[in-house]
Amino acid sequence: MSGGAFRRFLNALLPIIADYRARDPNRRVTLMAHSMGNHFLHAGLSAGIGSGPGQIAAPTLAALIDRVLLIAGDEDHDALSSSSGLRFATDIAAEVTLYYNQQDIPLSTISRVIHGTGRLGLAGPADKPAFKGRNIHFVNCSAANPEVKPNKRLDPQWHQYYRLVPEVRDDICAVMAGRDQAALANRTYRKKDNYYRLDLGG
Predict the structure, then answer these.
(1) CA 63 to CA 7: how far, in whole Å?
(2) Percent of the chain with pLDDT over 90
C-alpha cells in the first residue's frame, strides 16, 4: 500500500536531485534498499514509473541516478523479471548491484515460509546468466562473515552484512564511487553463473 506515497516522495525529490547534480557534474546519486526496503522499492517503482498522471518516465530518473543497490532483498526471487516493480531498477540507473547471502537467516526462515517462495536476497534470481550484458551485477556475500569467537559470527543473523562486515562495506563504497566492478578487491567472478563471490580480505 506504500507505492503511492513513494511516488509522491520521488516527485518531490526529483528537483532537489536535479539541482544537486547541476551544481557539480561529478556528484553522484545512489538509491539503496535493504531487506524489506526492496519490497517498498518494488511497490514504489510500480506506482511511480510510467507515463500516467503523476508518474515519472524511466529516462528522467536515469539521467539523475547513478547506482541502485539491492541488498538482502526481501522480494520474490523472480522480482527482476516481473512485469513491474524491481524490473524497472535497470531502467532508472546506469548500474544496478544486487548483494545476496545464501545463509541469510531472516530470509531463509521467516520470509521464505511466509511467502512460500525463494527470496531475492538469498541467491539472487535463478536465471542470473540471462542478465549477462545488462547493467546489473550480482554479488554473493555468503563467504563474507568472519568468526569473532568460536561459533559466533560478526553478523549473527547473516542479514546485516552490508553494514557489519568491512569487506562488504568497502565493496559497496567502491560501487557507489563508480569503480570498475571487475577490478574490485576480494571478488572472484563466476563466469558460467554470472555472479561475483565476495571473500574476506587476506
Answers:
(1) 17
(2) 92
